[in-house]
Amino acid sequence: MAGVGQNATLSPIRSPTSVKRKGSSRKRAVSQLPPVQTPETHDAALKSIRASLRKQTSYDVFPVSFRLIVLDTKLEVKKALQCVVSAPLWNSDQSRFAGMFTVSDIIHLIQYYYKTQQATYETVAADVETVRLENIRDIERTLGVETVPLIHEHPSNSLYVAARRLIETHARRLPLLDYDTETGQELIVSVLTQYRLLKFVSINCGKDVSQLHMPLRKLKIGTYVASSPNSPVQPPNEDDEEERKTNPYYPIATATLDTRVYNVVHMFSERGISAVPIIDENGVVVNLYETVDVITLVRLGYYQSLDLTIKEALNERSPDFPGVVICNASDSLGTLLQLIKKRRVHRLVVVEGEAEERQGGKKGRLLGIISLSDVLRYVVGNLDVTEEEE
């Protein structure tokens, strides 16, 4: 694993077995060879993980100590951003849960004012900062953005049910609600995220995770450049035929260091994505621009920075940015889950490695992108299949 950034080098994540150790003069005891890894062992491990998710509840994922910030829908967006970039919403007039405030809401809000009002930076700043959280859904409907479903689960339900709920609704976060036994009033207990759920799997199903040895490419986890050799076949989409002709990295949205920030904001809003790979003239990944980078500009009031190039905007990024996590398509699902256990990962950029380079490719060139949604969808399995059928 590695990061792509100011002080990072480009290299894929590697399994522990590939790490070279210093030689030793001490003789080692003869050990038995590990069992032969086959597709059957991979499938058995996957089935075992799913069985474990059915036995555990969302309560089991909670850390020993945590805090929960809940925002009143009457709060102004500017004040909300000073607290968090994501939080449950509470309707104080009706004393009930009102959904989630997320980074996507701010992206849509900025998109709305630039697209429909033809506003200047100054008016956008004024409007974005004074609008209340309760008005965001109306603005998104005007923009034509699909309405976010008001989803939630009880924390005592199984993790398997919660995971399927996340997949069905394409949500990254699932609010967990309970009820006061005396008043019957809703209580927001916590929020289950894709990352926390997958980290729980990697920690508590370690033996099974080590058996998930098959490569990401073969498992078709993630979205891959359609024109790349040996990439998983993408289902044809007639509506995207024009983009397929003009975008050499179709169906992945990309940008360069010279792309304007606002153009990337447009990609975030139109495609419903949270990150765009930044590539050079050869398609080699040099960085990643994320929705949280835009929120940093908005939080600081740098609305005029949205007209800067990505290269210029990256100067505003926090110096402790961990870098871009990359991998090769030949890396295994088990290795990916082990990585999630060690560090906070929200997505991985798949790049061409030595195998692709031998076939005429270029090492480090963009091949695909894997989100936590992709990983969770594979781990949980086909939503059309019932528990009995599995």
UniProtKB/TrEMBL annotation:
**InterPro entries the record matches:** AMPK_gamma/SDS23_families, CBS_dom, CBS_dom_sf
* Segments forming domain CBS: 246-308, 317-385
Q: From start to end residue, where is composition biased (Polar residues)?
A: 1-18
Query: Can you quote a single GO CC term?
Result: nucleus
Quote the PROSITE patterns the UniProt record gives: CBS
Q: Where is this region: Disordered?
A: 1-41, 227-246
Family assignment from sequence similarity: Belongs to the 5'-AMP-activated protein kinase gamma subunit family.
Record's keyword annotation contains Methyltransferase: no
From which domain of life does this come?
Answer: Eukaryota
Natural source organism: Schizopora paradoxa
Q: What's one Pfam family the UniProt record gives for this protein?
A: CBS
Q: Which GO terms describe its molecular function?
A: AMP binding; protein kinase binding; protein kinase regulator activity
**In its UniProt entry, what is this protein called?**
CBS-domain-containing protein
Q: What keywords tag this UniProt record?
A: CBS domain, Repeat
